[in-house]
Amino acid sequence: MAQMGRPRAFDREQAVDQALHLFWEQGYESTSLSQLKAGIGGGISAPSFYAAFGSKEALYQEAVQRYLDTYARVTESLWDDTLAPAQAIELALRRSTKMQCERHHPKGCMVALGVMSAPTPEHAAVTLPLTQSRQRTYAGFVRCVERGIASGELDPATDAKALATVFNSFLLGVSIAARDGVRHAVFDAAITQLMRQWDVARAQAV
After folding, report:
1. Which long-range contacts (CB under 8 A, 24 or more apart) does 190-193 make?
2. DSSP 3-state assignment of 6?
3. d(CA 114, CA 19)
4. Which of 42-46, 141-145, 150-154, 188-192 bottoms out in mean pLDDT, i.e. has the lowest?
5. Biggest alpha carbon distance in the chain?
6. Are 21 and 106 in contact (CB under 8 A)?
7. What is the mean pLDDT of the chain?
8. Region 116-140: what's the mean pLDDT?
9. What is the pLDDT of residue 4?
10. How large is the C-alpha radius of gyration of the chain?
11. Could you give the CA distance from residue 197 to residue 188 in angstroms, rounded to a whole number?
């Protein structure tokens, strides 16, 4: 008996990457099924799309996980105790800004932009992994500052959450600025200025 149907005319791994770029660029709600089908290519039909990915939401979740497993790892230095706290923070900032300005993918950070990806309440759960990733990055900055205080490098009166918010807010803002055309060299210079906030707290240490 002849086999029914035909093989998919697209590479699934490549299709997820293409969908990732679309969601990264436009967000969840603004990316339509027709755009996903066109971006994936191979003349995929709606039934084939659902057979391959289940739903738009399921594809988005898979794309988000791929982002978290790859691009988002630029801030992992925040959790590396072999690095000095200030070094861990500076490395995370420089690696993230470099990634956000690269030309082979959309500008900015999908995690930071996720807050605008699905703004309506009914889709809040869709972007939960991005929300959790933002919370983890902030916690990483707090942890680094707390390490600096515990080691005696920073003034014990330093407000860990306040100083961490300085670094975290800068990083969140990079996504918008990068899309507005700010160049990587400008961000790199800005980080040098930003790290002086650490030096101010260190200079006050007894």
Report:
1. 191/90, 191/93, 191/94, 191/97
2. coil
3. 15
4. 42-46
5. 84
6. yes
7. 91
8. 89
9. 43
10. 20
11. 15
